[in-house]
Amino acid sequence: MNSAVWIWYPGDFEIYHGMKQNFRREERGLGWPAFWKMDDWRKNLRFFRKYELKEAETFTVYGRGVGHVQVDGQKIPIGKEISVSAGTHLIEVFIGSMTGLPCIYVENSAEEGSIYSDSTWGVDDFLEAVPAGTSSLYTRREQDPGEVEYEELLVQPQSVTEKDGGALIDFGRMVDGRPVIVFKDNRDSERAFTILYGESEDEAMDAAFCYYKEENTTADRELRKRAFRFLYLPGIRPGEIEVRAVHQRVPLKVRASFHSDDEMVNRIWEVSEETYKLCSGLFFIDGIKRDRWVWSGDAYQSMMVNPYLYFDREIDKRTSRALRGNTEIRQHINTIVDYTMLWLISIQNEYMMDGDIAYVREMYPKMEAVMDLLFSQTDERGFVKGRERDWIYIDWADIDKDGPISAEQVLLWKCCGVMAYCAGRLADRDGSSVSDDNRSECGQNIAESRKPALGPDGRPLPADHVAPYDAPLPAEERQRLKERAAIYEEKAENLRQAILDYYWDEEKGALIDSFTSGRRNVTRHANIFAALFDFADEEQKKQICWGVLYNENVPQITTPYFKFFELDALGKLGDLDGIWKMLHEYWGGMLERGAVTFWELFDPAEEGRAQYGMYGDPFGKSLCHAWGASPIYLLGRYFLGVRPTSPGYATYEVKPALQYFDKLDCTIPVGKKSVHITLESGELAVSEC
Amino acid sequence: MNSAVWIWYPGDFEIYHGMKQNFRREERGLGWPAFWKMDDWRKNLRFFRKYELKEAETFTVYGRGVGHVQVDGQKIPIGKEISVSAGTHLIEVFIGSMTGLPCIYVENSAEEGSIYSDSTWGVDDFLEAVPAGTSSLYTRREQDPGEVEYEELLVQPQSVTEKDGGALIDFGRMVDGRPVIVFKDNRDSERAFTILYGESEDEAMDAAFCYYKEENTTADRELRKRAFRFLYLPGIRPGEIEVRAVHQRVPLKVRASFHSDDEMVNRIWEVSEETYKLCSGLFFIDGIKRDRWVWSGDAYQSMMVNPYLYFDREIDKRTSRALRGNTEIRQHINTIVDYTMLWLISIQNEYMMDGDIAYVREMYPKMEAVMDLLFSQTDERGFVKGRERDWIYIDWADIDKDGPISAEQVLLWKCCGVMAYCAGRLADRDGSSVSDDNRSECGQNIAESRKPALGPDGRPLPADHVAPYDAPLPAEERQRLKERAAIYEEKAENLRQAILDYYWDEEKGALIDSFTSGRRNVTRHANIFAALFDFADEEQKKQICWGVLYNENVPQITTPYFKFFELDALGKLGDLDGIWKMLHEYWGGMLERGAVTFWELFDPAEEGRAQYGMYGDPFGKSLCHAWGASPIYLLGRYFLGVRPTSPGYATYEVKPALQYFDKLDCTIPVGKKSVHITLESGELAVSEC
After folding, report:
1. Do B60 and B140 reside in the same domain of the chain?
2. Cα B403 to chain center, whole Å?
3. ipTM of the complex as predicted
4. What is residue B461's predicted lDDT score, i.e. its pLDDT?
5. Which of A80, A283, A625, B421 has its CA 20 to 30 A from that of B197?
6. CATH number, residue B177
7. What is residue A213's three-state secondary structure?
8. Model confidence band, residue B459 (pLDDT cutoffs 50, 70, 90)
9. In contact, A335 and A294? CB cutoff 8 Å
């Protein structure tokens, strides 16, 4: 079966679209490209594949860019049908593109032909050859992988009412797309009007402060993609117009469902799902109105949700590749030191989800480069510090950031553990342990011939062979990885001791923020990480519970971002009551305000217009923010109790917290299959389907 | 006086356009992007400048890309007039572009206003801040620095004749542009026809093998830029059409002239000038039909010609920046080890031409990175060797390339000397030695304030100050450079000794190619470099003359590329007769064949169609090739005897070789001024004007 796909330099699809995404922020008529160093996709490539054919074949190469095909060194234009005889042939495609993603599609004239583009091809930027990158989203030749293909959904307004002499439109849901306004009277088709957009009615009604405004537009003009629930058209009477909206989304399949006897929790799941779907396109973004950027901390949490809703193997990887960019790393991801570390930790989480060792292999050099960067900025005790332009974020909170801070060190310790684990898994592989089910999209075999090809000037070109990412590693590489694993383990152990020596306050039963300031301030953050990542031993965890988590003198977490870590830690420590309460109060509180998606932040004390402000901006708060969707993870992971106990859910656990429910009818994916959990009249049933 | 210019990240203009240039090769209907790693221009930038204003000012920022302006942290859209009060202000512009060159133009509303974009601005890719890049070609706000602005010249055909049932058009000169064909009968405006292009008539008449062919075109369609002298339109009668061509060129001013009593030499100068002009656009390219690429070896020679024709300070630098790309270097320039070294040597040549120390400062880190790469591939004797995918070129000749070869070592020795010189010059600078005349386009003062600006999230942004490239260096940097200079000197001395030990054959009076093969083969190449770069002492030079240069048993140089080095060496050794003979025979020989530009290669033995073939391709030879223009250098440097004796022609020598001429009336630029040399009735007059 011939199943050609578009191929590119691995990671470049994500770098390219990640940059597009990060350039898309808009605020009150101005563009706001993200304020960090953006890595570049490669502009000039050579794709290659050696075939040994039993019979003659005919194929055509399509490409995005300028270039040509070479068959056994013979140049042929792109787009031309090519016939090759039986025997061995080296097919090369040289292609360059400055404005788009250089990529190719090789189509065989026969269904059963063997020459077609897929991840068994190699690709080369004239430095190193690597296996080609692919996506299940780009499988047809007429596509352009440089453009996102959105699925479009027509949305009718819930209400169109007259207000202050204009038309106020409420779609009753968040739309990420474009409004379509049609005047009933054809003669008005050239009539200029203004559209004010709002996530809230207040925002749409505020011509000065709404984020998005389209002035002087006409009905026939296609508008750019924006997020809104409300529209306000000053000076237009509702009767004059017909309104709809075209919502655009990247097709992603929801595989989970949640129904219980607690209607509020059901609604929380629903609104979380809606929020999550809106914030996941090619990548996990933070929010649909603002920032529309790919942030590593936000993405980390979205990746935790993924197995409990989509179980989509590709969106995590697309997001990670976009965040990380090329192998060389000089600036932390999003400029934030802790975000770099969360990125690294998420690789292991992803591996636990789908068991795709080829992906770990692909990422491993980028992970090592991250560790080298981190170690390059450690002090004599092994503690990581921020460099001049680094951002030590952790959270918007009053953390004592004097000198190296404890939360960063716990993350660094966890990173060492992840590295030891990943290096160990790669070193263990003898090539037989990957099931077909868990193969990456980049992982099939490539012909092994190693005769050097000749370049345009008769000089040897790079090898015509490249090992796929899931190929067994050579013995010396396995040995090297074993040694690396041991080094990381040792680093982790040393670091753990140093952290305890410098930050652990036995009396407080807590890690202090900073040991240099002398203030011995305690915040929840480092302690939450310590509990969550098993940095703390059982005794210390108990101390952290009473010394920090249940200690009302330690300031509460105020952001849903870090609330996620806290709730995850509570879940891990077995305090489901705490999570249950929070679900009802915090997320339930937003529902009571009529939220159709979950917000960046919710403060019950704020009412009316005030509740939409943030960062000193009256509508600065995002009302559809990915991290608002964490109840899906919390419910799936702790209340339905589903979790993998080995990579790729080869084994997994289902341990529902029955005390919270009288009824359950839920489905959670576990790899290609799902578990169906029902509770009815005190009877629990769990089945795999 | 307010003289705003477009500004960008320094070097990125050249990387961007260099890539465009290197993607422009076309061959018989297929595209051929250059086969090397292409560095990327930066997509996401922050421009900044702090101003201390005595009075309020009004200005507007224009930009190519998405982004916004920040004045003291306040966001303002691009394209909007901005007013600022008297006092201190930080102006920042954030701009990103994926498809073009991100760049800005800041225009003041008042002639005498102080806020406008120029090289005193800093620019930042969110890693390091550097002084902004500029070009004298982009000074008007309506321009787009992402597009080359060509000057267009209408060319009328010299003849249109009927041949084999079609129209053969001869423009009598090389055109790099597009043909314009108009049918006299308006009804033919939709008529489809074919254009065959040729540098020679043979090529244009050969539908199968001509390089460029436009099939199925119509009179109203604009054709792409191509090089040709002849066109052939099959099936079109000359009477049916009107033909012209639009020649496109980057405006570059010829400042030299050469008239002597030797008509052949005059004509050689003329045709060299024509060849050189055609092969210099934004960059020095190799040839106009083929490859249209920027090659370092070719550019090295074009840069030698430059002071004797244009004395253009910018084209050398644009070419060097395009060749070298970003600071990190993993692949040799054009993949060729010797081309990397010639690139480095050319920096000193450029400095000798215009004395622009700011440019040396800008390039110095890129030069050090080159040296690090070279040293990373030396053996225990200090000899540089090719890595797996490196190309050890030197010349198309039978050089014994076993093991490290001598020609590469002589270049490496020269590079050490260049580094010692440049590091020394930079270390010597106390900030007072650069006259205004010799300032780089990147070299004025920038406000010195160092208060950190605040970013979008209240975090400190990079400094709002960056030292210009010609600022005095801090003492510790000067000390470091002094130490580097000493290290390079020592390396050069050690290398010289090793080269003599391993390659110098006292008996042959020559450097052998290889000491590992045991063949002790002698070619001219290493010996020419040894004489040219003063590796050889006076005694050894004499030995090389008789042992190699005048030794008919040592195979002749066959390429004009290396012939240039040989003639330069002869000139240096004082053998002007040898050059004079070569001018008349080789270049004169091409003139006798009716050449209107000089060729990539000339072999008097080849006649007819055969003379156009090269690389196994019947029309593979470029008939307008930059290195064909070297007579301008040879005549200017050795026969008019003009050369700088200190950087920037602060002092220079004029020493015409009067024995070859009865009459001379020549002008050669020497910095901003020129020397006028006349010889008439045995009387020589030299004046500066």
Report:
1. yes
2. 31
3. 0.94
4. 54
5. A80
6. 2.60.120.260
7. strand
8. low
9. no
Amino acid identity at A196: L
Residue A408 lies in a domain: yes
Are A118 and A6 members of one domain? Answer: yes
CA-nearest residue of chain A to B41? A40
Strand partners, A272: none
Do the Cβ atoms of A125 and B37 come within 8 Å? yes
Contacts of residue B121, defined as CB under 8 A and 6 or more positions apart, other chains included, come to: B7, B47, B48, B49, B106, B131, B132, B446
Question: What are the tokens at B11?
Answer: 């070097």
Asked if residue B55 belongs to a domain, the reply is yes
Mark whether A448 and A459 lie in a shared domain: no
Residues of B in contact with A94 (CB under 8 A): 32-33, 35
Distance of alpha carbon A383 from alpha carbon A394, whole angstroms: 16
Q: Which of residues 206-265 of A touch B (CB under 8 A)?
A: none
CA distance A621 to chain B (A): 14
Tell me which of B249, B274, B306 is where a domain ends.
B249
Place of tokens 């296609």: A222
Give the gyration radius of chain A's Cα atoms: 27
For residues A464 and A429, membership in a common domain is answered with: no
User: What confidence tier does A437 reach under pLDDT thresholds 50, 70, 90?
Assistant: very low
Upper half-sphere CA count for residue B82 (Cβ side, 13 Å): 28
Nearest to A291 by CA among A28, A38, A39, A24: A24
Give the contacts of B504 (CB within 8 A, at least 6 positions apart).
B510, B511, B540
Residue B456 has pLDDT above 80, yes or no: no
Give A632-653 as a DSSP string.
HHHIIIIIS-EEESSGGGSSEE
For range A297-320, the mean pLDDT: 98
Q: Do both A461 and A366 map to the same domain?
A: no
Task: Compute the distance between CA of residue A123 and CA of residue A464 in angstroms, rounded to an integer.
Answer: 9
C-alpha closest to that of B505 among B544, B463, B539, B556: B544
- Check if A550 contacts B (Cβ < 8 Å): no
Number of domains composing chain A: 3
Position A55 in a domain: yes
Query: B215 is in which domain, residue-wise?
Result: 151-249
- Type of residue found at B95: I
* Chain A, window 66-105: residues with a beta carbon less than 8 angstroms from a chain B beta carbon: 66-68, 75-78, 94-96, 98-100
- Paired residues of B643 in beta bridges: B653
Distance from CA of B135 to the nearest CA of A (A): 22
